[in-house]
Amino acid sequence: MIFSEIPSFNTPPEFSSNPNLRYGKSSSCRPMPRPTMERNEGRDEGVMDPVVEMVASIRMLGEGYMRMEEKQIEASKEIMRM
């Protein structure tokens, strides 16, 4: 392979020397619209934003960790009393 045949990342694919590359032409390269938290008029359920859902999951993990640590502290205090 000749060096001039290797596509450069700085040049647009249309100007690349390799005509078989299909970068930039497909719909998969377009950014997806970001979903937001929307509420339906008559319902209590809504579609959650993925970031909001991730934050809620991290918060639940943190709360579970804190409960576990508090139980360990209580157990160690009880052992020290004995």
Automatic annotation (TrEMBL):
Residues 36-46 have a biased composition (Basic and acidic residues). Residues 7-29 have a biased composition (Polar residues). Residues 1-48 are annotated as: Disordered. This is Uncharacterized protein.
